[in-house]
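User: Predict the complex.
Assistant: Input components as received:
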Amino acid sequence: MKLTDYFLPVLKESPADAEIASHKLMLRAGMLSQSSSGIYSWLPLGLRVLKKIENIVREEQDAAGVNEILMPTIQPADIWKESGRYDDYGKEMLRIKDRQGREMLFGPTNEEQVTDIFRRTVRSYKELPSLLYHIQWKFRDELRPRFGIMRGREFLMKDAYSFDLDKESSRASYNKFFVSYLKTFERLGLKAIPMAADTGPIGGDMSHEFVIISDTGESDIYFDNRILNLTNIDENIQYNSDLSTIVESYQDLYSVADDKFSEDDFNLKVPEEFRKHTKGIEVGHIFNFATKYSEPMKANVLNSNGKTVPVHMGSYGIGISRLVGAIIESSHDENGIIWPNSVTPFDIGLINLKIKDFDAVKICEKIYLELKDTGIDILYDNKDDSPGAKFSRMDLIGLPIQIICGKNSVKDGTVEIKYRNSGDVKLINISDVVNFIKNK
Amino acid sequence: MKLTDYFLPVLKESPADAEIASHKLMLRAGMLSQSSSGIYSWLPLGLRVLKKIENIVREEQDAAGVNEILMPTIQPADIWKESGRYDDYGKEMLRIKDRQGREMLFGPTNEEQVTDIFRRTVRSYKELPSLLYHIQWKFRDELRPRFGIMRGREFLMKDAYSFDLDKESSRASYNKFFVSYLKTFERLGLKAIPMAADTGPIGGDMSHEFVIISDTGESDIYFDNRILNLTNIDENIQYNSDLSTIVESYQDLYSVADDKFSEDDFNLKVPEEFRKHTKGIEVGHIFNFATKYSEPMKANVLNSNGKTVPVHMGSYGIGISRLVGAIIESSHDENGIIWPNSVTPFDIGLINLKIKDFDAVKICEKIYLELKDTGIDILYDNKDDSPGAKFSRMDLIGLPIQIICGKNSVKDGTVEIKYRNSGDVKLINISDVVNFIKNK
């Protein structure tokens, strides 16, 4: 993509009302534009990151054997009355009357909607377990939206739902999501800690939050530091194998959010040298709630004895739009964002410092086209701006590798390769650039 | 994908309230589940088609140099009051009050929202033309939703917007979308006819609907039959070249929807042998409305003389969810759907008629894995059902090619290849199957 063809409205100054780094940087880097309180438009650079995250989440759900569906944003109030949550949910739920006066709502979550789909279509234990997910915009009418998309009102969430015959198989589905979440966050370049958590308005008797460490997080978290040293999930993990050993290796180590914290427990279960208390950002949350929705909504199947039984359910959320902010919170410096390779909007930023020099343009066009042809996403800064403006813009938007072409490129046949993360710079012959980048 | 792992709740009977073929078939083929009047959940098979269409639309927008953004579903009423449309829009607009009592709405279209983004970020004629699109769920509170997703309330639309310095360059942007729409619909396997149209609540002085011929369409269309013989758009068309010759070749031939129809004009401009009057389904609509929004909303830029001028705008919609229905309307038979190759949910359906026969299972597993490895999307019916149930289910869901493996496969080493479109069947040696399919 050439910058002259790209809609990238970067700002020189941080907007006054942005409090935390990710909010400031997303506005400055032209990733977002505010529509109203807690509601944003995603501009091209931001949308690219959002989609990269969405696709990684999707790939891992598919790998775990979860079927993708897409439920609507607007739900009928009736099903929420059936489950008993319509009155419970309070003012965070955006309630709507349509032109016929029917009560509707903008879904904050989808337990009722998916249970309705299930009960209309599944009849027998032979079709279980059934795992469904969707990636859709949700709305929670926060009293005080803040921190940009980290605590917005309209947000993108992946929510999955499991339907099982009994408690034991339901636990196996829970473990599947537990492990797939660890793997998903690893791929996003994040170390997420699973924490025993309260279940809140979703309900149920087992729940884990996945939290990443961050000074700007809203939750206090307490954990056994050794949880950070557990080995990564195998890239080729078989989700139909028994995953309980992996899950237990995490659950055996103390880690809780503040709503479950007890000082006595912490001191008792964690040797002093491993006790850790920090702030964290919640990026995922999983629940097992047995028959809380299936009983009132009559989501039943016939078991192998021909008896009608309510299914055991769980739900599993990942905050996709929030993750964009969470990744920036954990990866930036005073000059801007530093994207992990897996979610960077472009792999390479190519800067031409001499856009009026015919030979420099020729060199850059060649590098640009050759890298593009190899399938590398490249943003080519071909704008007529000062070197200072170009350098600071490219640092701000945080692409992992910069290729800098200036007057020395024409003279010596070299370009500079700059790593955004370390700031390291090396000189490379122009003829070697494509191979160098391809083999990274 | 193995059918035992896939959520595909097909129905034997058509639901009583479905009136047209696409609605019946989408429900029967397990593509959709109704949530409330005019609102649907997309099940895995339906979602695959929706995404294929979405991606083709996206690729063609990208090819035409349009930048993708994503605006929220919930908009503030303020910007609609600025443009003057808040009162005009009537009951089709879903109006909402949030917990603070602020007036909001679920966007039925995005002229105001995108104009607001533009005026916050763009200052100079040097940044024009600026072309933006997004693919997002919209809501129109139809009085009588019907025909399933063809006339639903929550629907997926691609809407694009152009910002130009003056009328002439704005016309060039209009032509760009005109041509890219013809190409997009061609790729979807549809012959869409551009028709001079009224502008309705969007406004402006130039507008074309893109309509496909269908007996179940809601519009009467009148056109010169020779428009169907115009040559296809070049696959490698350069969108920055002058496209007016192509656009004029269409506009020179009479074609209008009923709101613009005049019997006298039709008779005068079209020789009798070429006069055609049919029903049609609108799948796209483009508008040029000059400064209708930019003037009241003060979306101005500085021109080359340093003078502040309002930008000239256009908007360009494609009904993505509606296209799923429109394609089925134009491609089905009494047994079910017949997908065009470009949007089929899977390329191949593999039927094992002998799932208890060890050798038949071995043959099918081998074909399944080998085809999957070559990147072909394959649905493997490994369920324990009767041959009749398997045949009718596979015909119903409409995959272009079926591979049928039965007792002869084990005996003779052959499988049947059945083409869903023609019904033709041919025998192929098992060892040739993968090459045969790959080279199709």
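Chain B touches chain A through 51 residues (CB under 8 Å).
Let me know if you want any component modeled separately.
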